[in-house]
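Progress narrative, Year 2. Work on GntR family transcriptional regulator from Embleya hyalina advanced from sequence curation to structure prediction during this period.
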Amino acid sequence: MVSHSSPIPLYHQIASILRQQILDGVYPPEHQLAPENDLAKQFGVSRATVRQAVLELADAGLLARRHGRGTFVLDAARKPLRYRFHGDMHDLLTAAAANAHTVREMSLHHRRELPPTVARDLHVADGRGTIVERLMDAADAPFAYHRNYLPDAYGRLLSRRRLKSVGVLHLLNESGVPLVRARQTILARAAEPDIADRLDVGHGGVVLYTERVVRTEDGTPVELAHSWYPAGSYGYTVDFDTIPHAETP
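Result:
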């Protein structure tokens, strides 16, 4: 069962339990999961916590939420279609600068406790770092909600005043931090209640979610960013070219 005293979020504990049960065959493919209210009673948590766990497993390709029917187990061997593209770091910095919008709400805090998975990915041993949260507007409507996590050594380079007009990557680059590599993942997912409220999309509404990790040349993680966009406010275009291989002399 789950531990309410553990630093690991309850929803993640539940997701881990259900994931293992699926992989062990306790819940075979096409098995219908119990309703969220029943699972909430079983684990002694709120329905919102169960829903967050279910969304995590759906994103991992282990569950499918079928409208009007319920939540079903997928074949563990099935994975969401994922494609990987390569781009230039300069393009990412340019795009980040070009997409500046009006900041409606902003907070910057140092020495804050980070989610365990974030602390692990940022290699922060004591589990504390800088958290930046910004709600962005475009044409007086919510455009994006950004949550950036940084080790405090890099977070101290940021200022509230500058964050009202430029982004985190711009400030790090301006401060001389060698931003050499980044990986950004883009997914469509159902909005969690707090995100839905911020973006005014309605609970369960579809949002575009991005997760980005930026590193220095030696692989040191500098920033982990989570962003949510209302459907229709964010577009992503990829150009493909045929590049001939260089001839061997």
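Residues 245-249 have pLDDT under 50 and may be disordered. The longest helix spans residues 10-23.
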